[in-house]
Known about the structure:
The structure holds 2 protein chains of 2 kinds. Chain A has 18 helices and 1 strand. Chain A has helices at 3-14, 20-30, 50-81, 89-93, 96-128, 135-145, 153-167, 181-192, 194-197, 207-215, 228-233, 244-249, 261-273, 279-301, 312-315, 328-335, 346-366, 374-404; one strand at 31-32. Chain B is globular and about 65 Å long. Chain B is α/β, with parallel strands linked by helices. In chain B, 21% of the residues lie in helices and 22% in strands. Chains A and B meet through helix 1, helix 2, strand 1, helix 3 and helix 18 of A and strand 7, helix 1, strand 21, helix 9 and helix 10 of B.
Amino acid sequence: MxxxxxxxxxxxxxxxxxxxxxxxxxxxxxFSPDExxxxxxxxxxxxxxxxxxxNTVIMALVPVLIFSMFNAGYQHYSAIxxxxxxxxxxxxxxxxxxxWIGIIxxxxxxxxxxxxxxxxEFIFAVIKGHEVEEGYLVxxxxxxxxxxxxxxxxxxxxxxxFGVVIGKEVFGGTGMNILNPALTIRAFLFFAYPTWMSGDKxxxxxxxxxxxxxxxxxxxxxxxxxxxxxYLAQNKGAxxxxxxxxxxxxxxxxxxxxxxxxxxxxxxxxxxxxxxxxWRIMVSAVIGSLVMGLIFNQVVDFGWVGESSKFYxxxxxxxxxxxxxxxxxxxxxxxxxxxxxxxxxxxxxxxYGFFIGFISVMIRVFNPAYPEGVFLAILLMNVFAPTIDHYxxxxxxKRRMNRLKNATIYPKDSDGKAEELKAETV
Amino acid sequence: xxKDIRIKKxxxxxLVGAAEQTTSKAVLSNVYAIxxxxxxxxxxxxxxxxxxxxxxxEPLFYNKNMENMLFVSPVSGELIEIERGDRRRxxxxxxxxxxxxxxxxxxxxxxxxxxxxxxxxxxxxxGCWPFIKQRPYDVVxxxxxxxxxxxxxxxxxxPLQADLDYVLQGKEKELQTAISALGKLTPGKVHVSVxxxxxxxxxxxxxxxxxxxxxxxxxLVGTQINKLDPINKGELVWTVTxxxxxxxxxxxxxxxxxxxxxxxxxxxxxxxxxxxxTKIGAEISTFLYxxxxxxxxxxxxxxxVLTGSKSKPDxxxxxxxxxxxxxxxxxxxxxxxxxKPVFNKISAxxxxxxxxxxxxxxxxxxxxxxxxxxxxxxxxQYEKVFPMDIFPMQLLKACMVKDLDEMEQLGLYEVAPEDxxxxxxxCISKQPHQKIIREGLDLLQKEIG
Lengths: 426, 449
């Protein structure tokens, strides 16, 4: 008996039972279902479904994940041994040593994120008796990519439970949530465990242990794992040794998956090409961040902010470089484009995206304690997205109401039921 | 001045099995059936008893809420069965046809001289009235009302639909008579749209002629109304399909109700897809097996694959249909169907689906849903195939939460379920759009009227 028919029998056996959603989740993972169209609707359907859609986003994230695994090791060894003088991609970056660090530090984050999140999803599906929805497939991949590499796994688990339950399930599950669940998890981590989420000791594996060793009296050099934004926020831009190409290709410290603007750009192009993510949001967010960056650059050019100002470092940072450092690019491509929490109208998407870019850079510059504003900006705009849509939809309604003034309505005929026409009942 | 309609947003669903342009006469059907599900919102009141003999065009029942609106028999014979469902609701009336086919008494009408009232009375009495549908609500028109305009779409853009240019050939006289009659029922215009100048409808007098081009749903009358003369709250627009105009026209010319119709039998499961002349209510098997069926497991659809209703091989031709489609059932699993590249199905995205590379390729789609029902997640997809100035997803959601104000404001008056067939086809969440809209329309009609 084939696997297919065996599973079909099991499905019939579990039908209507409590654990059916859990079984179906695995079954539909293996086989797309044998469901046919209902009477009263279209008899054929397009090839796309939510699993395929989510899978496309995951495919766009895989290169970022693989890069981040190498980068975790590269940053670790570079922090201990110093950056290689003649950087070669094959010899210094794509090495087994680097990848091994990725396996022991990054992969567990992915596994824990998926395991914890999916368990919560399965529990809710079984309790509420609906199918396991695919939303977490993407969230589960995003979460490990937006946290510092040294995030303890228990901390991640707590945050994931919080994010999935409070961020999504209480609203009714996938498709109903107001805030992006991955960013809710990130925000929870940031506000609950700030010392693990910012500073110069969390971005590189080993930095925290090394500093503890030093405190304990060990005679070793401290590791600095400061991010570029961290340097700039402290007006120490001059100490930075990263080139623009380092920033663009991502050989810099930062949250696990955010560093390579290059691969994020490729992922974004892939998502636009496959028509899965909104190009409107991406383009307008880029424009928004460039505009804000330009404004700050101008402020510095006019001399309104001097070098002694605590904002000088970030304000004088070339406006376009904002896009290749920190989490801005990652947020724009993978987070802002979440269709559930973003603006739903095409026109609204332009405003929504623009303000994400604009506010991200603004928070970045004005918040020296934590110079990463993109997740706060996206969460803020998540909240405002329905308002934006409301006004866009009002525009359509207003057009319709204006048309109504010229409506041609004829009165009803006098009841029209002449006696001789009346039918006879049996 | 005629205004042409060019649609850019939309999607052509090219399927295998288009009907070849040859027409055969279908074998005479023994039993004909009127299916009440074709008349949405009509409560029938029987006028003849089971076992009674009826003639061609003799009234079978009337509309309980509109006593002068009669529904007639397409053939003469014996009313052998009144099939009832829950709470004795009438589902189907079956008539065993006799050999002689005697016509019921009726009189021709000189349309040019007739008054509006005379015309209405004749159409109601003859059983031709139910061919006139109204928007809003997509139901049989209320004869007590006056529409602001009447729309006739002579262009079929939907998948495997009967080519109207072909089936209307040689019926110019009937069409013109019916159109002149309709012109008397409205102080406004009669809008006729055609896909090409070959259409017999392009030579009609007393109409506003429009050329339609662009992908499906350019041929849907709802799209054309929205582009030319959108419906506002309180306004009425009537629509008639061209094949029904022929029946109306013939009655006005001859005084006889002739239910004959040329239909397309199409779909990938049909061995020799082509056109048949048959009658409303005929058994589908009378022509289905003449063309032959390719496979064991197939679905017969009364209508096209987007808007038709599911039927059985021994089912009956619907009252308004000019297309019968037969496609394979898709009740099978597919290993990793959700992530492997797809070459043999149509998709509105490019997520490892490759239909965008071959826009003119013809596909052999089955009835598989290609995924499970989910909440609305993806946005901006429907807008790409929805040419009306309406927010489709917002309107669907308003219908789902039964928010009457929103439904009204977002344009529910302008749409019929069929206008949402294309968005339903591409829907990633596999939501039943047409059902949602139908329920919304029913609610709105009940609450506002």
